[in-house]
Amino acid sequence: MIKAKKSLGQNFLIDNKILNQIVNCVEIENKNILEIGPGTGNLTKYILNKKPKKFTVIEKDNNLIDNLKEQFKENLNIINDDVLNIDESLLFKERVIVFGNLPYNISTEILSKWIINIKKDFWFENLVLMFQKEVADRIIANYNNSNYGRLSILANWKLIIKKICDIKPSSFSPKPKIDSSLLLFSPKKDFYKIKDPKNLEKITRIFFNNRRKMIKKPFNQIFNGDLRVLEKLKIDLNLRPQNLDIETYYKLTEEYENLRS
Questions:
Q1: Is residue 9 pLDDT above 60, yes or no?
Q2: Structure pTM?
Q3: Strands 96-101, 32-36: parallel, antiparallel or unpaired by DSSP?
C-alpha cells in the first residue's frame, strides 16, 4: 500500500465524482496532456480513458514512479523530477492541457513561476488546477475584497480564471484539514504589457506590505511623491491597497518601468 508523504504535501484524490468532473472541464481527446503530481494514478486513469494524443506526467516522489510505470506501461511519458526545476515551454512543441492536484505547500510558487515565465506565447492551452480553498479564494478575488492581494493581481494578469467547484476533505486520502477548490485557467488573448514581471511583484509587495494602511507611504516610497503619476492615474492616496483595481497595479508598474528606463 502506498502511503502519502506529508513532506511532499501529498493528499491523493479518491472521489470518482470529482475525478469525473475534473476530466470533463475541457476537451481532452487527441490533445497533449501534462499532469503534475499524478500520485497513485487515480486521475491519470480518467485522463487516459479520454484518449489524449500524448500524455506526460511529472512526479517527484521516487516511490510512486515504479507504481506508475507498472500501472500504465507505455501509455505515459514519466518525468521523475520536481516541477519547479522544469521549463515546461521547452518540453512541448505544441500547447498542452495541464492537470494538477498541486502540493499545497508550493502551489502558489508553481502558479507564479508559470505566469512569470510566459513571454509572448503560451505553452499551455488550459490549466485545470486544485488549490487549498483559501488560496483559490485569493486567486479569484476582485478588488475591495479582503482576499484580494498580490496573488490575485499576478494570476489575473495573463489568465482568465473560472472556479469549477469546491472539494471536501472526504474526497482525499489522507483527508486534509481544509477544503479545496478546482480552478480552470485560460490564456488571455491580450494582456497588459509589462517589461519585467519582477517589477509587478515588487510594486505589489510594497503596496500590500501594510494592507490595512493607506497607500500614501508605499506610493511615496516607489515614486518619491511624483504628482505627475498621481494625476495621470487619478489615484487617491487615502485608499488602501485592496481598493485599487487590478489594472491600476499594472499601470503603476508601467510608470515605474518608464521612470527607470
A1: no
A2: 0.92
A3: parallel
Q: Are 211 and 50 in contact (CB under 8 A)?
A: no
Mean pLDDT of 234-241: 96
Q: CATH number of 197-260: 3.30.565.10, 3.40.50.300, 3.10.20.310, 1.10.8.100?
A: 1.10.8.100
Q: In what order do the strands lie in the sheet with 180-187?
A: 77-79, 54-58, 32-36, 96-101, 124-132, 180-187, 159-167
Contact in structure between 216 and 244 (CB atoms under 8 Å): no
| Burial readout 14-39 (b: 16 or more C-beta within 10 A, e: otherwise) | ebeebbeebbebbebeebbbbbbbbb
Residues 105 and 9 sit within 8 Å (Cβ to Cβ): yes
Alpha-carbon gap, residue 1 to 71, rounded angstroms: 14
Gap between the Cα atoms of 171 and 43, Å rounded: 13
Asked whether the beta carbons of 17 and 83 are under 8 A apart, the reply is no
| Mean pLDDT in residue range 151-170 | 97
Match domain 6-187 to its CATH number in 3.40.50.2300, 3.40.50.460, 3.40.50.150, 3.40.50.300: 3.40.50.150
